[in-house]
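User: Hi! I'm working on a homework problem where we have to compare a predicted structure to a textbook description. Could you give me the structure for the chain below?
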Amino acid sequence: MSKVKGSFIGPLGDDIPSIFPLVTGILILISSIAFLSNEISSINSFIELRKSILSISDLMLQSGYISNQTFETLCDQVKNYASDRGYNIFVRLQKGCGTGVSYLKNYTVIDSTKDLVCLTEDLGNNPTYFSIAENASTGVFATYPVAVDCSERNDESVKGVGKLNIALYPIK
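Assistant: Happy to help. Predicted structure tokens:
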């Protein structure tokens, strides 16, 4: 009987084929953990963004009525709040004076010159323009009905229905 030579590679040589599946399994485990960590971080940052917009809307809507003076005061507060947390903010108060409650159903602007706008970044020569498409993937948007001051003069007290639009998105 003849002996087959060369079948024994050495003490480590026979274990090499079994090492590859172990290394592959460990690499898959580590990459899965890294992926899950990234997903958890992304979800946590989105939850923080949602908490921030709820805090801002709570501050803006604390009385349910927003006058022009109140809007300016609240604007400074929410800009500081958003900047401290690393967000840009766009707040727009659309007044539906004289248009009735149906104004809340359609999203067309009746008279954009009466809109009050508060923002943390420069949007160019048209401050009432805000591109949802540019910030839709990273931002949070909310719309609330609110009572507004519709008086043209300071000696009148005419109230109406308005819409408060809030957009909050991370600083790029």
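For your comparison, note the following. The chain has one domain: 38-170. Residues 106-110 have pLDDT under 50 and may be disordered. Good luck with the assignment!
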